[in-house]
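Sequence and structure are no longer studied apart. As an example, we show below a sequence and the tokens encoding its fold:
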Amino acid sequence: MTVLEKGNISIHTENIFPIIKKSLYTDHEIFLRELISNSVDAMSKLKMASLAGEVNRELPESKITISLDKENKTLSISDNGIGMTTEEIKKYINQVAFSSAEEFVQKYQKSANDLIGHFGLGFYSAFMVAKKVEIDTLSYQEGTQAVHWSCDGSPEFELSESSRTQIGTTITLTLMDEEVEYLEPVRIKQLIKTYSDFLSVPIEFEGEVVNKQKALWKESPQNLTKEDYLEFYRYLYPFQEDPLLWVHLNTDYPFLLNGILYFPKLRPDVDVSKG
């Protein structure tokens, strides 16, 4: 690979990376949700570019692929979304810019759960579990060079040419020794079900699609049957009796509200007055 550039990620205080790596969330597992969400955004942007006539090729069906390599302690997340150019990586990955940096550190060191939502640091959540993060990406734009970015959790990065030929992005995490739980297939499936089960994009893991995709509460009640509602409830609560009844909330005035409210059957041995 031809090295295009080495340098420092643009941050206004060296205290930022320790916060990202150790304190971004109480639960480090949130990193997978953030990276999957980024992949979904990338595929949505590619569809928008295609509709705008900016894509001069046939696009494959959108999908996310997650793979594990226990021997090398890596977890990879791939998508066939819009991809990034060298300049876009420099702009969106290499610059973590904050105003009033010292005030930021003092404010968010004890309330790090607000950090990603406030500053858009979803990608950097990977450093909570990884000692090295790599990006391999090719933009949808004609004539662009595929690029490979890597960072070991310090402010230093390396940007090189890549041999990638497929539009999209692969993010590879080399996990810390204390985070090897994320090399277990059962753990990954659990996180996908918890955070990404009802995303519209299929998530492929170990050769099969593992997310349900269909968000029943977003469907029109007129298009659903009794069995649809029961099947959904059984999926969410596999060890419970079927519900007594349910109400499908679907309104856009005076505010947007979508949801399904299930009323479970009460067991005679349960005293509801005790909570």
Remarks:
- The longest helix spans residues 30-51.
- The domain at 3-209 is CATH 3.30.565.10 (Heat Shock Protein 90).
- Helices lie at 16-23, 30-51, 86-92, 101-108, 115-119, 185-195, 226-236.
- Residues 64 and 109 are 33 Å apart (CA to CA).
